[in-house]
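REQUEST FORM: STRUCTURE PREDICTION
Request ID: SP-0412
Submitted by: Lab K.M.
Chain count: 1
Length (residues): 392
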Amino acid sequence: MSLLEDLERILDVVVRDDPSFRAVGPSLIEACIKDARRNALAGSEGAFLLSTMRLLALPENGHTRLIPNDAISVLPFRFVAMRESVFLTKSEATLASNSISKLIAVNGTPVDQIEAASQSYLAGTWQRKRVIGPLLLSWPRALAHLGFASTDSKTDYLIQDSEGRVENITVDNSNTIPALQLYPRNEHGQVDPVWAFDELVDVRDWQGIGISVSLPSFLETEDNRLAKSIAVAATRLRTCASTPLLIDVRGNTGGDFIKTLPLIDAIAASAQSRHCAVLVDKFTFSAAIVFVAILKHRLGRNLILIGEEMGDGLKFFAEGGSVDLPCSGAVVRYSTALHDWATGSIDQTTPPEIAEHILEVGKLEIDHQWTVPPQRVESLGETYLRILRELN
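STATUS: Completed
RESULT:
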């Protein structure tokens, strides 16, 4: 089986069918295809994956991308973008410090220089690039392709812990593990790669000060658990219509926003009698952003946005699906439908069930900039209580 077969699947399913490519110049597409074909013919899997990552990043649409996680091995370090830096949050190697540490440099090169050099290989907005980019920092083939490899088949990481202590970690490039052990396909930004949550909708009353609603995912289950949980939460919120409300969609990578509309209706029904805030971050994507957009449209000034710029803009292409590449084992995510929540526009690709809900939201401005410190100085409950007290 040849990498050329992978390339043909990419061209057949994505470049010719994905409408996000319509705004990309044909000569630029052809140049990237030529590079990918050259690497395929050479049998260089790492270079092929990186060249197809660059090809699929051309539309700057985060839903259209090559996901190499299933196909590659990485050094045993999980890096996550937090605030304006990158942090080592988990390691399968033995380190002097087990705390979350800031990554300063890789093979003597400052992290921001490597991030800048990797931009054309990463799909989506600048925030989405920051979400998926840390994977490249632990992938030796990517570091070499970008020109940041060491000369002795080892990789050096310079990290700094919360006390300011600096440590240099050197690991042999053969000491790798499957990337999926540390980097999930849908990156959520949690310290650990496996983010286990008990409920799709978690409603809690905080000492009578306010109500929190945690929404970690909008992915529906076979037993229709999301829709059922949304219905229960909506009913509960209608019974406490004057209580301050905090909604948390950080780390929510999307799913089916239509299933969340009953919850939006319940929140909007009491918008004039309660203070509402929503927590967002760079790991808030797709349908979760649509949820926030509709909520902001309905509540207006009665909804406060707290956090940082989200991982997608208000105009993007989505729906579509994924294709498993038979030779490399990588996955291609492609798009088929326009979502334009900025201007409220639709086109022939927008499904009717989406089009009937499209609204002109304009912009989603963050009212209060805030992100969780890399070293968690308070529990999630303490964070919720602090924000709810400010809402009173």
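NOTES: The longest helix spans residues 26-42.
Reviewed by: T.R.
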